[in-house]
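Write out this protein's structure.
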Amino acid sequence: MPNANPVVRAYRPEDRDAVVRLLAGSDPWRTLGYRDEDWSRLFREDGLVEGREGYVLDADGAVAGVALLKPRFLMGDYLELLAIAPSARNHGHGARLLAQLESITFARGKNLFACVSDFNEGARRFYARQGYQEIGPMPNLLIPGGAELLLRKTTGPARQR
């Protein structure tokens, strides 16, 4: 990885090809059956699908990671995806990207939710280390026989008594 300190910045349409390549070549999305066409519909040539905020981990102009947030989900935001390029993994870059997303989310709400596939042990460990709780499984949501696990990190109840 060229840059030991990549920066988090807003997604730009010119990131599209690199983002699609990163996602299309990564698990769990391959296992879940996602293809280039699926990513190309989400990351359009003119920008993101409406209702999403995109962020990129930029390492000297190369996309080393990507994340999508859906604002206003259950008294917080929903982290629709977070992916780190294989060459950037195990250097704390995923935690850096997630921390930036948390600062954005917790400035406007109390909760950040995410889902992780039950077979994705590495992601489950990553989110647990970052303070996320597994709320529960959603069986057969994406693939037969599999479950997506709803995760939550919170700064407290949305309302005080």
